[in-house]
Design a protein that fits this description.
The complex is a heterodimer of chains A (about 425) and B (about 350).
Chain A lengths: L1 H19 L4 E2 L11 H22 L7 E2 L9 H11 L11 H14 L3 E2 L17 E2 L5 H12 L11 E7 L2 H4 L2 H11 L2 E7 L8 H10 L3 E5 L3 H12 L7 E3 L6 H5 L9 E4 L8 H11 L14 H24 L6 H9 L2 E2 L1 H6 L9 E2 L12 E5 L4 E3 L8 H18 L12
Parallel strand pairs in A: 1-2, 3-4, 5-6, 5-7, 7-8, 8-9
Antiparallel strand pairs in A: 9-12, 10-11, 12-13
Helix pairs in contact in A: 2-11, 2-12, 3-4, 12-13
Chain B lengths: L12 H4 L6 H21 L2 H27 L7 H18 L5 H20 L7 H21 L12 E2 L3 E3 L2 E4 L5 H24 L1 H11 L1 H6 L4 H28 L1 E2 L6 H14 L5 H23 L6 H22 L4 H14 L5
The chains are: A alpha/beta (about 425), B mainly alpha (about 350).
Chain lengths: ~425, ~350
């Protein structure tokens, strides 16, 4: 009887509690700290959560309202992801879906539910077409940007140098891995290099001997890897074993995870990964995080994660969301905003050098700006190179040629809209 | 007391063989149906529709398909998810090639494709049994998922390799796609699942069902009393695959909205096999009970800490959840190895003779 009374009281409290908590910014994150990809997820999620904790601790939230950065665990499973989306969509300002599978499922629904999707650095590349994907945002750079930047680093800036080269494209056989193929195929036809796509099945992720045998037989000038999770560490280990020259091996930003490289240590020296974020251990932001978040124990972050590429990328992701909220608050004049307001905010992001310096994040992400027609921002990125112990910056800021990418994005966005008709398209953006 | 059967006399053979020889069973079913058709839809939230009601119904139907094959006809299959995939991809091709087609007709038709593929992979069952047959169906699992990935025509040469459900109308109401209302989808699923359940109950009680059971219990004896084993096994494969195919089409079109090939991989097959085994092989009711335990319970457990305001992080809840569901499965299998349906049958028997046990 006593227990039942307690339970009833607890339920009543929660009901009252949720009623009173209305004045907050609810930005749920569909996290994956369990499951096969947890090792990659944890530092990213920690970075995201820590940035919001810092804002709550230091400034009392954003615009005076605390941020409720609740996590809903998906374990990277699409089924759980949809469950989380349904659970959180009632009060959520934004959806952060995290996996390509969940993004695929949630994307059409957000149009109906009118909640913006924020997928920093992942999701569909054609999402940059704001006219078609009105509720989806993938700042600061899309996969096609990434693929273009890798090619331009291989070519040394002049795409004509690619002529006659043979480039292997080692990718996960999954929507995520196939994403850059249309761009790479187009570039191969245009600039006369030979593209050898080598798919890695989801089940073969950890055993890539067949794929690397093919690499050895084909002798490509470069290998570009679009991998995720266990695929990356396995590929890097195989590359070391087959003695593939590491400095000709490139990865997407998700293939630049410190522990993957730390496993091979000095033998991985020269491995490169394109990235739109860069760890800055000495930045003002890191000092504040250490002081206000880590020292007070309001975090799940461990000391060794702090300077990793992924943790600091998580910080950048939350910064993008926070700046979107700030822009929306400034626009409406209210601290309490709606998902539609946040959509405006994400569409009018203007992250300049000065802004980054002001946030204490100078050099952590290249400056970028979004607009109604451009939901990506196309910040460009740097090549990070493994020096045997850590990733160091190995190039100036690279930019993708938007005249090439935009034409492709427009075509693919139109294709998507047609396949999913009736799909609401906003023509007022122009472009 | 509630289940007292005294006073219910059977005066004819037909009455004794009726679907509900005990009146209370019929009343109970009427109550459940009233809940399913009226009360739940009126009270359920969007969350309940999308994470509990619709998936439980669809998983129950899939498990029922598997149960026909494994529980009634005794042919072990590990290729369930692949046959679901055949249904889903067939439905996708049907509605993209013929957009004017009624979506429910498309869903029901896609089962035939899966039945065809099922019969093809069922042919080895004429020569091999038990674990060896399981391996043959495992081959179907690997081959079909590979086919879904490689045969670009199946997903209309989509760059991402995934299929997405377009908005589909039926008599002016959107029933599938992102703009469809959850309640509409629930009713479509409920109608199809109810229809299939009725079909299954009648099939398993009739000649075909008895033929299957004979085949399951001892195939040589069945052959000696004149049962054509080829016909018996292949009809089991065909009907089972048909139901699984329909459920696969429902799975993608009425619930998920999008699917990538690896969705139909072996973990899904195992999940459905677990539902069938924990629910009870060789029963219809068991599929529903199993689906509630395996699909519904984790969702409910997930929401509990929040309801009671317990400050547990979402990742910890997930870990706890896996442990609780795992131990419950072991618990139920220890107290009743023949599944939840058998457990219910025992409870019902006890209720009938209560308060005077033998």
């Amino acid at each position: 009887m006593k227990l039942w009374k307690k339970l009833a009281a607890a339920t009543a409290l929660t009901v009252v509690g949720t009623g009173a908590m209305a004045a907050e910014l609810y930005t749920p994150n569909l996290a994956y700290r369990t499951g096969p990809f947890a090792a990659l997820g944890i530092p990213l999620m920690n970075g995201q959560a820590d940035y919001m904790t810092l804002l709550n601790e230091r400034d009392g939230g954003i615009g005076g309202l605390p941020v409720n950065f609740e996590e809903c665990e998906t374990g990277y499973s699409t089924e759980k992801g949809v469950e989380c989306y349904e659970k959180t969509k009632g009060g959520a300002l934004v959806t952060q879906p995290w996996s390509t599978g969940i993004t695929l499922q949630v994307l059409p629904k957000t149009n109906v539910d009118q909640i913006p999707i924020l997928a920093p650095g992942y999701g569909f590349s054609p999402m940059s077409e704001g006219g078609t994907f009105q509720w989806a945002y993938n700042p600061p750079a899309s996969y096609w940007d990434g693929a273009y930047m890798i090619l331009s680093d291989i070519a040394g800036g002049d795409m004509a140098n690619l002529k006659g080269k043979k480039i292997a494209f080692l990718h996960l056989d999954h929507p995520f891995g196939k994403e850059p193929l249309p761009l790479l195929e187009q570039m191969a036809a245009e600039h006369g290099f030979e593209l050898v796509p080598i798919p890695v099945g989801l089940k073969e992720m950890q055993n890539q001997s067949a794929q690397w045998l093919q690499v050895r037989r084909e002798r490509p000038d470069n290998v570009i890897m679009w991998g995720w999770g266990a695929m990356n560490s396995a590929a890097i280990a195989e590359a070391v074993k087959t003695k593939y020259p590491m400095d000709q091996f490139y990865g997407v930003w998700w293939a630049g995870h410190d522990p993957d490289l730390a496993a091979v240590g000095a033998e991985g020296k020269g491995y490169k990964s394109i990235s739109w974020s860069m760890p800055q251990p000495d930045s003002a932001l890191m000092a504040e995080i250490k002081e206000k978040v880590i020292a007070s124990g309001k975090t799940q972050t461990t000391e060794d994660q702090l300077n990793s590429v992924f943790y600091q990328r998580g910080l950048v992701m939350s910064m993008i969301l926070a700046e979107g909220i700030k822009a929306a608050q400034a626009h409406t004049g209210n601290a309490e905003i709606t998902p539609a307001d946040l959509r405006w905010g994400l569409e009018n992001l203007d992250i300049t050098e000065e802004k980054l310096a002001e946030l204490g994040m100078a050099g952590m992400v290249p400056p970028f700006a979004t607009s109604c027609d451009n939901h990506t921002g196309h910040s460009g990125g740097w090549i990070l190179e493994w020096d045997g112990e850590k990733f160091v910056q190995a190039s100036d800021l690279l930019q993708a040629d938007q005249s090439v990418i935009e034409a492709l994005a427009e075509a693919k966005a139109a294709e998507y809209a047609e396949a999913n008709a009736p799909w609401p398209v906003n023509d007022s953006c122009g472009g | 007391m509630l289940y007292r059967t005294s006073g219910q006399f059977k005066t004819s053979y037909t009455a004794d063989m009726a679907l509900f020889p005990v009146r209370q069973d019929a009343i109970l079913l009427a109550i459940i149906l009233a809940f399913a058709w009226v009360i739940l839809p009126l009270t359920a939230s969007e969350f309940a529709f999308q994470t509990l009601l619709i998936p439980i119904l669809i998983y129950s139907l899939t498990a029922m398909g598997l149960n026909i094959l494994t529980g009634y006809a005794g042919q072990l299959s590990l290729g369930t998810a692949a046959f679901m995939g055949v249904g889903a991809y067939a439905c996708y091709k049907l509605v993209t090639i013929m957009p004017w087609m009624n979506p429910v007709v498309a869903i029901l038709m896609s089962g035939f494709f899966s039945a065809g593929v099922g019969v093809m992979f069922g042919i080895p069952s004429l020569r091999i049994k038990g674990f060896y047959l399981a391996i043959a169906t495992l081959a179907a699992q690997f081959f079909l998922v590979w086919l879904f990935e490689k045969w670009a025509w199946l997903y209309n040469y989509n760059a991402s390799g995934a299929i997405q459900v377009p908005n589909l109308d039926m008599f002016g109401v959107t029933v599938a796609g992102p703009t469809a209302d959850s309640m509409t989808q629930y009713y479509v699923v409920l109608a199809i699942v109810s229809l299939m359940t009725m079909l299954c109950i009648n099939l398993t009680r009739g000649t075909l069902g008895r033929t299957w059971k004979a085949t399951r219990d001892m195939d040589i004896a069945a052959e000696l009393i004149g049962i054509n084993l080829m016909k018996s096994k292949l009809t089991a494969f065909a009907i089972s695959s048909y139901i699984i195919g329909v459920s696969g089409a429902l799975f993608v079109f009425m619930w998920r909205g999008a699917a990538e090939p690896n969705l139909f991989d072996i973990p899904l097959s195992f999940r459905i096999l677990f539902i069938a085994i924990i629910g009870g092989l060789g029963s219809i009711l068991g599929n529903y009970l199993g689906a509630i335990l395996i699909v519904g319970l984790p969702v409910i457990l997930n929401t509990l800490p929040q309801t009671f305001g317990l400050p547990i992080s979402s990742a910890t809840v997930e870990h706890l959840n896996i442990m609780i569901v795992g131990s419950l499965i072991i618990f139920f299998l220890i107290i009743e190895p023949h599944g939840l349906a058998r457990l219910w049958a025992l409870i019902r028997e006890k209720l009938m003779i209560w308060p005077f046990p033998h």
